[in-house]
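comment on this one:
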Amino acid sequence: MGLAVSVAAAITPMKFHADLPRSREAQPRDTSRPQAHADAHGSSEDVGWLITLSDLTLLLICFLALWYVKNQHHNAAQTAKPAALAAHVNDGSGKALPASAHASDWNALRDEIDDFIAGAGMSDDVSIAAAPDEILISFEDTVTFASGKTDLRPEALLVLEKVAVAAVSRPVMRLEINGHTDDRPISTAEFPSNWELSSARASRVARYLIEKGVHPARIVVHGFAYHRPRVPNENRTSRGANRRVELRLFRGVDRVAAQSSVAPIH
């Protein structure tokens, strides 16, 4: 009897523990809340990238607007420069000078030089042609240089001095001097080829004009050798026509304005 009571007492607590409610870890989880939280988080991320894209688009629009305004301002400033330079041109010495040489003045200068050449009896050796704001004086080698030489003859100095006086009194005038030879080769210690000879002759004319007061910055010198003939080098007469020095007088406003219209590189 006593043994039975002891066994029953031992079984009763075990049954009691078995009837206890399950622990929290053993209970099934409610998965509805985490899923709802994940859905809300995903929705927030979807909206977030749209906000970032709209910010970038707004910044791009602002940048394009600023670029457009700056570009318009730059174009307006560059357009105004040629107009200002047309009124004042630099002669190379740093001093601004008024543009006083008009088309009528150039026509008068052409007639004046033409009359001077005719009066000096050099119409057959010195020719003159004119275009708007441009005069071309061509010297045959018979009045400029001896064969293979670069010493100016006295006959040429008369016309060159007249040109120098006209250039000094007209600061907007630019002078381009071109030397030409015929196709006969030359090979000396001083002139290895016609390139050196044609350039030296054009440079000699330039030096004389500078000595008479023309600023060097207003002069350009070219030597073309025999590569720009007037006529084919077929005989003595044609070769004589191709040996020449050309003096081109023109207004410098257009060239200066074109150089100033180039945007500086920063």
Notes: Residues 1-21, 82-101, 254-266 have pLDDT under 50 and may be disordered. The longest strand covers residues 173-180.
